[in-house]
Amino acid sequence: MSEPLPLAPVTADPLVVHPLLEERRPDAQLGEALLRPVLTAPGMGWWALVGVCAALTVLLAVAITITFVTGVGVWGNNIPVAWAFGIINFVWWIGIGHAGTLISAILLLFGMKWRSSVNRMAEAMTLFALVCAALFPLLHLGRPWKFYYLVPYPSSLRMWPQFRSPLTWDVVAITTYLTVSVLFWYLGLLPDLATARDTAKQPWRRRVWGLLSLGWRGSARHWRHWRTGYLLLAGLATPLVVSVHTIVSFDFAVSQLPGWHSTIFPPYFVAGAIFSGLAMVLSLLIPARRALHLHAVVTQAHLDALARLLLVSGLFVAYGYVQEHFFGWYSGNPYEMHAMNILRTGPYAPAFWTVFACNVLVPQLFWSARLRTQPVVLWCAALLVNVGMWLERFIIIVSPLSEDFLPASWRHYAPTWVDLSLLSGTVGLFGLGFLLFLRFLPPVPISEVKELQHELEASEAFAHDVSAREGGAR
Amino acid sequence: MSRWVLGEFRTPERMVAAARALRASGFLRLEAHTPYPVEDVDAVLGLSGSRLPLLALLAGVGGAAGAYVVQWFTQAVDWPLNVGGRPLHSGPAFIPITFESAVLAAAGAIFLGVIVACGLPRVTHPFLDLEAFRSASIDGFWLAVAVDGSEGVDAAEGALRQLGAAVVLAVEGRR
C-alpha cells in the first residue's frame, strides 16, 4: 500500500476483554428496552423493598420528632464527645455522593466511554446521599429552626456569621454541591425525558414527561448548547467535588485536637469519599442491573472498571492510614502518639482493625481479573467497604474527642436507640429515593447509549474497511 | 404564521448528506432534529460555537467577587470581631467560600443559559403535535426546512423526497 492508513480505534482489539455493549440493537428497540423499567408495572420485589424502606423512613421521622421535642439530649453525645453520630453520618453520606460526581463529571472530562451506562444511577445516588447528609448538621444544631442564622442576612441583631470558621464554609460547600448536582442531573435528563415523552402511550405520561422535558426537540441548536453546557458543568463539578470533602476535612484539621490537626486530612478525606461512594455505586448497581435486566448495557466491562477504581481509591485510603499513624509517631508529641495508640491497641482497637480489614484487605481481592467481574464477590466486598468506611468515620470522630489532653475529662461514647434509628432511617430514606427514581425516570441515559452504539458501529465499520483494503493489497 | 417542511431520514449520515445537498441548492434556513448529537451537523448547518463559556466565566467571576466582598464587609467593616488577635481582613480564610460561590454562580448561569439559548421551556410547538415527529427523540433523523408560501413548500417537499427522505410533512404554526 502506498498511502498511509489513518489511525482508527479498532474495537476488535484483542486487548479488550469485555465489550461496553453486549449486543447491538436498532435505536427504537434499544430505547424501549432502557425505558422498560418505567413503562411497565413494578414487580413484587420492588414493592417489598419500598415497604422496608418506607418503614425505615417512618422510623427516621419518629427519631427526628423525638429529637426536636426533647432536644439532642436523647442522643448519646456527651462532653467531650459532642459530635458523634450527627457528624459521622454527615461525613459518611456526603462522601458517598462523591463517587456519583466522579463518574458523571470527571470521567466525562477524561472521555471514558464506559460512564455512559452508569452515570445516571450514580448521579441519582449522589442526590439522595446529599439529602441524607444535609439532614444531620441541621438536626445537630439543636435548634434547627434557627438554621438561617448561618446565612449572612442583615438582621436586627446586627450580627454576622463567623466566616473564619470552617463550619460556615461547610454550609456554602454543601448547598453549592447539592445545587450543582441537581442542575447537572436534570440537564443530563432533559433529552431522555423527551424520549420517554415520545415513547409513552398513555396521555397522562406524555403530559407529565412533556412538562418535565421542557419542550426538548433535539434540534442541532439544542444539542450544541446542551453539550457545551454539560461539559462546562462537568468542568465545574470536578474541582467542586474535591473542594467539598476538603472543606469537610477542615472541620477537623483546622481544630487543635491531637488526631485531627493534620495536613493529611484533606487528601485522605477526598480519597475516602470516593472509595466509599464507589462501594455504594456497586452496592446499588449490581442488584439494579440484575432486577432491570440491564446486562446488555451494564456489562462486565463496567464492573471491571468500577472494581479497578475501588482498588485504586482503596490504595489511596491505605496510604492515608499509613501516613496518619506515621505522623502521629514522628511528631514525638505524647498527645498525638496517644491518639494513634488508642486506635491500634486501646479501646478502639476492634473498630480500627475491622476498618483495616474492610478498607485495606478486602479491595486487594480485585488484583484478580476473574474476581473483578464476579457480581456476587463485588457486591459483598462493596458492602464490607461501606461498613468499613462508616466505622472509619466513627473512629476518626469519636476516638480523638473521647481521650484528649486531660485524662480527668476523658469519657467514652455509646449511641442510643435514637442515634441508631437516625442512621438506619436515613438508609431507608436513601433506598426509598433510589427505588422511586428507578421506577419513574430513565435509569440509563438513553441518548448517550445510542450515541455510543453509533460510534462503536462506525469504528467497527471503519476497521472492517481498513482490514479489507489491507487484505486486498497483500 | 411560519411554515416548515419536515423530512425524516433513517441514519445520521444520510441526514447530514441531505442537509449538505439542500444547502448547496439554496435552502439555507435548515434545522436538524436528532435523538443524539450528530457529528458534522453544526458545520453543515453553519452554526457558530456556543457562547456559554463566556457567560460561565462572567458569572463565576461575579460570584467570587460578590462572596469575597460580603465576607470582607461583614468581618472587617460592619462587625469587626477580634478573635485572638487575628487580622480582621483574613483573606486566606475567605478562599473556600469565595471558590464555592464562584462555582455556584457559574453553574446556575450555565443551566439558565442552556435553557434560554435553547428557547425552553416551551411545552407546545407545532412539531410536537405531529405523531410522526415523535421518532425525532427515538430513532429518526429529521431535517426541518423553513419555507415561505406554498411554492416554497412544494420545492422543499420535492427536494427532500429526491434526497431519500422516508417521510415528508408540511407544518404550519407559530415559531
CATH class of the largest domain in chain B: Alpha Beta
Distance between the termini of chain B: 7 Å
Helix content of chain B: 40-55%
Count of distinct strands of chain B: 4
Q: What is the CATH architecture term of the largest domain in chain B?
A: 2-Layer Sandwich
Globally, the shape of chain A reads globular
Provide the CATH topology of the largest domain in chain B.
Alpha-Beta Plaits
* Count of folded domains of chain B: 2
Strand content of chain A: under 5%
Number of helices of chain B: 5
Mean pLDDT of chain A: 88
Family (chain A): Belongs to the NrfD family.
Keywords (chain A): Cell membrane, Membrane, Transmembrane, Transmembrane helix
InterPro entries (chain A): NrfD-like
Membrane topology (chain A): Multi-pass membrane protein
TL;DR?
The complex is a heterodimer of chains A (474) and B (175). By secondary structure, chain A is mainly alpha-helical.
Q: What can you tell me about this protein's structure?
A:
The complex is a heterodimer of chains A (474) and B (175). Chain A is mostly helical and 474 residues long. Helices cover 71% and strands 0% of the residues of chain A. Chain A has helices at residues 27-39, 44-70, 84-109, 115-140, 166-199, 203-212, 220-253, 265-291, 300-331, 334-344, 349-361, 369-372, 375-402, 417-440, 446-473. In chain A, helix 4 crosses helix 8. The radius of gyration of chain A is 25 Å and the shape is globular. Residues 1-11 of chain A have low confidence and may be disordered. Chain B folds into two domains: 2-49 and 125-173, Alpha-Beta Plaits (2-Layer Sandwich); 52-117, no CATH class. Chain B has a four-stranded antiparallel sheet with strand order 2-3-1-4, covered by helices on one side. The N and C termini of chain B lie close together (7 Å). The model of chain B has no long low-confidence stretch (mean pLDDT 88). Classes of the chains: A mainly alpha (474), B alpha+beta (175). Chain A: InterPro entries: NrfD-like. Chain A: It comes from Myxococcus xanthus. Chain A: Keywords: Cell membrane, Membrane, Transmembrane, Transmembrane helix.
